[in-house]
Amino acid sequence: MKRHYDYLIIGSGVAGMSFALKVAQTGKVALICKTTLDEANTDLAQGGVASVTNRLVDDFDKHIHDTMVAGDWLSDPEAVRKVVTEAPEQINALISWGVEFDKNDDGTFDLHREGGHSEFRILHHADNTGHEIQTSLVQAVKAHGNIDIFENHFAVEILTQHHLGKIVTRRTRDIECFGAYVLNQENGKVDTFLARVTLMATGGIGAVYQTTTNPLIATGDGIAMVYRAKGTVKDMEFVQFHPTALYHPGDRPAFLITEAMRGYGAVLRNLAGEEFMQKYDPRLSLAPRDVVARAIDSEMKQRGEDHVYLDVTHKDAEQTKHHFPNIYQHCLELGIDITKDYIPVVPAAHYLCGGIKVDLNACSSIKRLYAVGECSCTGLHGGNRLASNSLIEAVVYAEAAARHAIEHHNHYEWRDDIPEWNDDGTQHPEEMVLISQSEKEVQEIMSAYVGIVRSNLRLNRAWNRLDILYEETEKLFKTSTVSRRICELRNIINVGYLIMRQAKERKESRGLHYTLDYPPAPKSDDDLKL
Question: What is the full DSSP assignment across 97-145?
Fold first, then answer.
């Protein structure tokens, strides 16, 4: 079946839904969601949204400087300034869609401070800000008559000239996106969604690793699809490991202990109860995430321990419960009273700073294709994301993409000559264990060799093992009836390869990419200044 839309949106987090709400007044929108609308990385974001709102003590230049420092000076200054200066306006947009941020008694925003920030500038809703945003946007999207929602649909490939029989390579100019092949998971049929404009908003890649805070749907689908379509993908070596995921073996995804808890005053300790951050960074527990994650990783390896502790017991118990109600309740259900007990924590794959390369209008290297949110590489994050910059980046770039798409979408026509999906000669794979075992192997390879600390030896080993898995999986894909499981396996292998290859290409330790073969240069005083 062929479906025609003005706007095709693949992904339903804050990036995809905010774009949908902005463009729906000018055309018909298809919103593709591979599970349900409420399952997205956005929903799990605890900390909040960074924006300069208290002008008495804060300003744009401070936020810009903090972002550049956290990104190890690899961030694109234009992208940084764009997000920081447009953030307040997009905060108002979120509020207009029903998002409620916590306020003080005098009506001002109750602002948090997180690692790497020089001021209190994090707007939040208790400790479940992402859930508040996701819930509000879901209600707004469902209420809009021009938005068709396709839950339990999975985008298999984007459509380009390749599907018209033309040879497309990475040197081909003017590659265009005409829509996507989309699998209806309820009936197993693949429909052809033709669109004037396509937006990729598929989120992150955490499921490529064994331990992650991401929902298990975070398999890098959009990045893999664009890479296979010969689009430009950048900075994949910069994978952020959140320093403090709750250590509870067997949980996948891992429960996140928000950055805001360290901003609130929580202290990291080893299993002997000793503070250790003073050995690694003068900013102690408020150092940026890459520094803290490596410090924890080093402490665990030196001591032969499988986690460390986060201690908030010295803070007022009632205030702790008030600020972190969900963390308090979740830990209590596991027998941990955070007002009295240390919280066992461990680093976990959390956020990708790279992705589909886009310009200031969120345009990718493929015409008619935009990318927004974690799957995109705007240049904002550089070598490391500053805490709570991601949600606001998604909304700011959704606005940029919407403005550009609205201006240009009527210039594009649907390509009805795109052939429909052909699965002749394929069959259901007889042994699903082949897929599940390969998934585990990819996650083990990435965690062991392409994790927090890397080396040429580890990366070469990852290359050799991923190459075998790639060949096996492509052969299986070509002979199997299409399914979400086989597509996700293809995608995590593609994404794992990109992380590993671009890590090999970076001959330095910089930001989140830390390699034993190229020790980092000493930090200057300005690098460490908050």
Answer: TT----B-TTSSB--B--TT-SS--EE-STT-HHHHHHHHHHHHHHT-T
Tokens of 497: 């390869």
pLDDT at 461 over 90: yes
The domain limits of the chain are: 2-238+353-411, 243-348
Peptide bond into 253 cis (omega under 30): yes
If we measure between CA atoms, which residue out of 117, 137, 142, 114 comes closest to residue 127? 114
- Which CATH architecture describes the domain 2-238+353-411? 3-Layer(bba) Sandwich (3.50)
Half-sphere exposure of 283 (CA within 13 A, CB side): 24
Listed residue (425, 388, 383) closest to 513, CA to CA: 383
pLDDT interval class at 173 (50, 70, 90):
confident
pLDDT in tens, 113-145: 887 899 999 998 876 677 788 888 899 899 999
Known catalytic residues? 289
- Give pLDDT tens digits for 366-420: 999 999 999 999 999 999 999 889 999 999 999 999 999 999 999 999 999 999 9
Geometric angle at alpha carbon 76, from 73 and 77, rounded to 5°: 85
Alpha-carbon gap, residue 59 to 226, rounded angstroms: 37
Q: How far is CA 524 from CA 288, 373, 508, 527, in A?
A: 15, 31, 17, 5
CATH topology of domain 243-348: Flavocytochrome C3; Chain A, domain 1 (3.90.700)
Show the tokens assigned to 201.
């908003």
Select from 169, 155, 181 the least CA-distant residue to 227: 169
In the chain, the amino acid numbered 460 is N
